[in-house]
Amino acid sequence: MIFNPEYECMEGETRKKLQLAALKNLVETVYSKVPFYRKKIEETKITPKDIHSLKDIEKLPFTTKDDLRDNYPHGLRACPQDRIVEVHMSTGTTGKPVVNEYTNIDLDIWRQGMARTLAGAGCTSDDIVQNCYRYGLFTGGLGVHYGSLTIGAEVLPMSSGLTERQLMILRDFGSTMLTCTPSYALYLAEEAAEAGIDLRALPINKGCFGAEAWSENMRTQIESRYNMKAYDIYGLTEIIGPGVGFECEAQNGLHINEDMFYPEVIDPDTGKVLPAGKKGELVFTTLTREGTPLLRYRTRDITFLIEEPCKCGRTTRRIHRLFGRTDDMLIIRGVNIFPSQIEHSLIEIEGTEPQYLIIINRGDNHLDEVELQVEVKKDLFSDETKVLESLRDRIEQTMKNKLQISLKVKLVEPKTIERSIGKAKRVIDNRRI
Ligand code: DLL
After folding, report:
1. Selection from 332, 329, 315 nearest residue 404 by Cα
2. Residues 6+ positions from 339 with CB-CB distance below 8 Å
3. 310 vs 422, which has greater pLDDT?
4. CA torsion angle for 129, 245, 327, 306 (degrees, to 10)?
5. What is the distance between the alpha carbons of residues 184 and 172, in angstroms, rounded to a whole number?
6. What's the rounded mean pLDDT across residues 151-156?
7. CA–CA dist 36, 41 (Å, integer)
8. Ligand 1 close to Cβ of residue 110 (< 6 A)
9. Among 416, 327, 355, 414, which Cα is nearest to 379's?
10. Cβ(185) to ligand 1 under 6 A?
11. In this predicted structure, which of 166-170, 266-270, 306-310, 424-428 has the lowest mean pLDDT?
12. Measured torsion, CA atoms of residues 54, 55, 56, 59, in degrees rounded to the nearest 10
């Protein structure tokens, strides 16, 4: 279902006109209201009057996560405090959190973005949404909550954790839609199997999953364990939370809510804007935000833009599902590797679960040593050791072929790797300690 055809299916040139008007207004606002931006814009030797076309956005400075931290907590606010009605923050464990302050207009933008997101997955007022994203400073809980209310669906504000109770409610209330991190969706499915609950027989038939990287393999697992359609949704605290990009029924890239968030993809080394189809770092400008608007925010997320029309009828540009983050990249013995590559390589190997942990140590010889723990399907674990040994060799060989590094694989029993109720932890890098 398309929640807002007027905006989502808008003719391209009309959208560009709206975007340009919003961009001019935004640059004027931050120039006059946010000293940090005034200084940054002055340094680039331009003034707001120099923005004549959308391409002129390339003249504007970038904003980075460090800029946000340096201006903690209120340095990027672009309106008086009495207009702020809600605050969210990033969940990182190091340094100062990244703060996003919302006015009522910002909440309207968020409600709209999230209603479009949930509707993209087929949510209507008939749905019962079991929302297991954490409520609180994290944007997942309230983001989905606002979107569900805007659609008029019934929302169960479960938050994360208390898995037994989640399963009881899922069954007793006949929830039709699940929203949580993809890793939690799989964990919930495992617990359901353990408790003898047949998820495939329940009314649950769709879900919106995001907040962390997940592969097509995980999608297949979730879809088959629940007998549902599993949709990818994307967003980040700095921009609004979830509601930035979402999959439609075509499941072929994530539609960006472009009237609100202007996307660019840049070469992370040179800062140059890349054409559609070329992989790089995703950058967003919040065209219509009031509380803490951002110019050209560098997300560190890696993807490419898709401009070809989508068969769903929406005309917004899409991004490919994320490939990883510039700061997720592991450099192991000089080779650049993303955890998602390891996950993708595991797809092809029969007998493994999509649960893995990468542990990196620096050996006595000062070389990096990587152990990849992989969970094995239950029935295989009871088989002879020969079967397990050959599986281990096969994974090691596949990784060597695909990633060009040797790593040691340790097969572990199902449910050995710690499950998370929020974002999953896939890497333990002991080299930095
Ligand atoms: O994770 C917002 C969110 C909540 C998105 C619920 C989707 C669903 P942060 O905690 O600020 O916000 O983390 C943002 O998470 O820059 C990506 O690196 C990653 N991320 C978010 N969605 C996806 C996704 C929320 N669908 C950071 N695929 C982003 C891969 C994702 N990574």
Report:
1. 332
2. 213, 324, 328, 330, 358, 426, 427
3. 310
4. 140
5. 20
6. 98
7. 9
8. no
9. 414
10. no
11. 424-428
12. 130
Q: Determine the residue of 301, 302, 321, 340 to mutate for testing ligand 1's pocket, defined as the one with the most ligand atoms within 8 A of the Cβ atom.
A: 301
For 299, the token pair is 């997300």
User: How many angstroms does the Cα of residue 408 sit away from the middle of ligand 1?
Assistant: 30
- Ligand 1 center–CA 300 separation, angstroms: 11
Least confident piece of the model among 10-24, 114-128, 401-415: 401-415
Neighbours of 103 (CB within 10 A): 21
CA of 209 to the centre of ligand 1 (A): 10
- Tell whether ligand 1 has an atom less than 6 A from the beta carbon of residue 133: yes
Centroid of chain to Cα 259: 19
| Calpha distance 206→364 (Å, rounded) | 49
> Nearest-CA neighbor of 182 among 326, 330, 343, 301?
343
212 CB near ligand 1 (under 6 Å): yes
Residue 98 near residue 68, CB atoms below 8 Å: yes
Mean pLDDT of the residues in the chain: 94
Give the sign of the dihedral formed by CA 267, CA 101, CA 290, CA 74: negative
Helices of type H across 214-354: 216-226, 339-347
- For residue 47, CA distances in Å to 28, 31, 42 come to 9, 8, 7
* Bridge partner residues of 130 (DSSP): 156, 178
At 49, is the pLDDT very low, low, confident or very high (cuts 50, 70, 90)? very high
**pLDDT confidence of residue 94:** 60
Q: What is the number of residues in the chain? A: 433
By the 10 Å C-beta count (0-12 exposed, 13-18 middle, 19+ buried), 371 is classed as: middle
